[in-house]
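Bench notes, bay 3.
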Amino acid sequence: MKKTLITMALAACMLQCATVERSWRAKGMTTPAGPPLAYQASTTYAIHLFCGWRPLVGDASVDGAMQNFVSDARKAGALKYEVSNVDQNSLCDSVFGITIIPLIFSPTITTVYGPIYSR
């Protein structure tokens, strides 16, 4: 039990982050709003209580992930952005074969996808 708590604490420290991926080469692809600066995917990792009910460490709710998407787009120089897809996964079934703890402390991953524009 002690090892499990230590592992969960370490995972909580590592999962409080967000990553961003961008494709700068559109290769002629365009959108109704014109050619984008880049296509962006921002992924937010966090630990939530009770299968995503409340954020505990980090915030991978759709609102928190949208804030990360917007701040990442602005860091890349975007003035405008569109969201084309949001994907949220709450890993509350089992993690490494442990079934009770993930029901209470659930790792949650949310990814927001969309083009960003410089004008």
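Next record in the batch:
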Amino acid sequence: MAKQLLSSMMLTMLSALLFLPPSGVMAQQVLPSAPERKSDIIWAIDATMPGFIKIEDGLNGYGAQMLDWFIARMPDYHHLVKILPRRSAYDAMRMTAEADDTICIPGTQNTPERASEFILSNTVAPLLPLSVVVPSSALTSFRPYMFGDGTIDLEALLDDTSRYTALAKSRTYGPDIDRILAEAIDSPNVLRTDNQSSFPLMLEMGRIDWMLAFPAEIESHRRAQGKVSDMVSLPIGGMPRFLDLAIACNRSPTGINAIAKVNDILATNPDMPWLDYYVDYLGYADRARFSETLRDFKTARDIPAVQ
């Protein structure tokens, strides 16, 4: 009985948060409701930079721009964007699985576990994964830590205690990377900080030699600090070449139809023009890496790459 009461309370609280009328930056009315009745889609956004950046009148960032691109091509729905931590969004989607309410998340990793719970679109954004980030001027000095294919041997790099790095205390990097880091977490060359916003400056000052980050986020931090020197990200050996990001919805009738619509948009836009927003958040060297990764992705899907 207590368990049922707790579940009921959780559902009530999440529903109240999701269906509050929009106010301030906590909600953004994207498209006005037409006189005729349209099915509602609530887009649950985890406002993390630089994909989704909270601003005074809504959201900015390449993720917000990509979402707007898709929303503009889905006029049959009434769209509402809500800022909600990712874990809470997943919980809300699970609780509304049998209801008519539709909650969708843009940019979730396509995994078997997610596919078993939610309905997922085809790949929307094959973005660059977590990487080893170094100053471009120091690139050649990292070649001793590379495998034959040019990817970084992360364990060998961590074993060299003359090469300093920094990690954010509260951040996880995925089970495979976390396993490697756990073996070196107490090494003298691994610094721990509260957040990674200062990492680019630490690289500039020579306090650290390399860091772990997604290329787009480190470039965003670097620009915010007004630094002009470029950085380059190096792929980590044994990791996927790209993040397979999809749009996920709960399995309501509207959610199922919305994902079908997204897949139609993907099929009729094989050049994936919305990724231009992401490219704008990459440094010069990382743009070349992404261009190669995207070309290989398209080839694997039997879509001719644009020359």
